[in-house]
Amino acid sequence: MSNKAPRGVRLVITLAGCRNAGKSSLINAITGQDIAIVSDHPGTTTDPVAKHYELLPLGPVTFYDTAGLDDEGELGELRIKATRKVLWRSDVAVVVISEHGITDYEKQIMADIRKLDIPFLVVFNKRDLAKPADKDLTYCLENNLRHLVVSTKEDAEVNAVKQAIIDIAPPEMKHDPVLAGDLISEGDWVVCVVPIDLAAPKGRLILPQVQVLREILDCDAIGITVKEREIDEALSNLHRKPALVITDSQVVMSVAGDVPDDIPLTTFSTLFARYKGDIKRLVEGAEAIDQLKDGDTILMGEACAHHAVADDIGRVKIPRWLTQYTGKDLNFEFYSGHDFPEDLERFKLAIHCGACMLNRTEMLRRIKECNRRGVPITNYGVAISKLQGVLERVLAPFNLN
Hints:
With 401 residues, this protein is of the alpha/beta class. The chain has helices at residues 23-31, 73-88, 104-115, 134-142, 158-168, 207-218, 231-237, 252-258, 268-275, 279-286, 313-326, 360-372, 380-387, 391-395, and strands at residues 11-17, 49-55, 59-65, 92-97, 120-124, 147-149, 189-193, 222-226, 244-247, 265-267, 297-302, 331-336, 349-352, 377-379.
């Protein structure tokens, strides 16, 4: 995969530590490029700095250089909050220790990283200035912390840092996740139904559709792309039944009426429910729709920020369909990008997009946090299929038992 791989499929690796610990120097040494500004003045890095990189065999990754954990003042608190926000969506963390050794700041961030269940590595930097204290090495050994001693100025052990990151990366990041590849075989016909409405991006398809089409080709299957109005004609002109029909969720009800029951049918968003999340949890979350009451507040989560159009799926259509289905007076709150509310308990249901712009770790963490706080969560595709009365059919291609 190239450096232009979608953001949502990249492994996120975050470097955290106190000011002037050498995080910027380390990220520059790892990538072999001057990405982050390096200075002896503490606090040079203010906002998280992202660098795309190809770290084989993991493939495309994003390194984040972050502000110091010991930043000061009101602005410093905001910078620290931004650092913790990046950690929320990280797959791997590297805690960088300066020549001053492990302080309470590093101990606290390591505790926070453990709570998030993120694999992490401790790197003692600046060994050219001072060797790690015996008490710090003992602390790592007693707490079973993988650690390395490096000097970015001497370029010592930088490759060892890369290898350690590869070693501790989550197992699922070491192999390609599957979208529809396990549902089709070589030579199969797959029909993709792609409506072109006001929300469709100009001159291109949306990322989930592109990724599914690419996987169809990778499986040596035959992909056919049509709009919803041509589905009947497309099926009648095929000399054999397609192995699968995949439709945009917005037109799932009409497509389900046109596709015979003996042809498997699902949606792009349902494929993403398992590709980026936990499909069983998201299906369970959809059941909460039937328990909604007047005055309940629904969290609508969008992975990307975009201009809402007249028939926007998340801001217009789903709220309308949900209100019509339940007959209740509901409140909706919208959160975009990496913003996600901290006071989850006040929501009765969370409905998330397919998360094509989030990495899987961040989406799974959102699902886990909602469940921990007692908030049912589902995604657009699963929710729409339930509201349209076709959820059972859309889930049929998957073995969810």
